[in-house]
Amino acid sequence: MVNSSGGVLYPKRLPEFHRLPATGAAAELVAWFWIPEWDIEQGGFSRQEIVGYPALNLVVEHEGVALSGPTTRASHRDLRGRGWAVGALLRPAAVAALTDDPAALVDTARALTEPSLHAEIVAAMASGAGHRERAVETFSRWLVERVGRLDESARQANALVDVLGGAEAALTPVEAATRLAVSVRTLQRMAHRYVGVSPAAMIRRRRLQEAAQLVREDPRADLAAIAAELGYADHAHLTRDFQSVLGLAPRSYRAGLSE
Boundaries of each HTH araC/xylS-type domain copy (predicted)? Predict the structure, then answer.
């Protein structure tokens, strides 16, 4: 199931926003597609704050195509005027066809020259009712053709992300390596080659996203209980993680949700 707001720090502030599932062969390449659309009155803006998934995104906008790397901290974008974006949260199996060094894209993005993808997505987004679905179909077809047949290492890299971020996710790199029947060193190499950040960083990001989501879903939830549920040593550990990535404490984040 596609989580409609995971990673979005303040969902109530979003403009029109959709997450669509990847299907067929594209499901091995994309976790989901995300499509914001906005029309902001002149002189105004909408600030969108995100604590990103430990993954790369391929994003098409009216201005062009970009490959965005994983982030080490919360980020934001101020939306102005009228626009849209069609993004694909990439699974590791798609990454090798787009970059040979995802670590070089951490906290940055690189423009790609992909005129056919750009033209087809722009046309789909301007096509009236059903435009989002057509954009996703176009994007999926392009990615499947671009990546080609997957080898065993690509599928193992997908399994790595599933073990570190899926249901009943591993709590440590050692546990993840054991489940995948590889050494911790092999696990680290896979993460560097296909994601760009370490397994430990992926685990920390997942826990922080889950903590933020629990705070959003139940503003009265006890923070110490959230910390214990997610494997933090204590409430102070959760607070340090929040402050290092989001730049504010859990209580301050909770207070800001009502704004």
Answer: 175-256
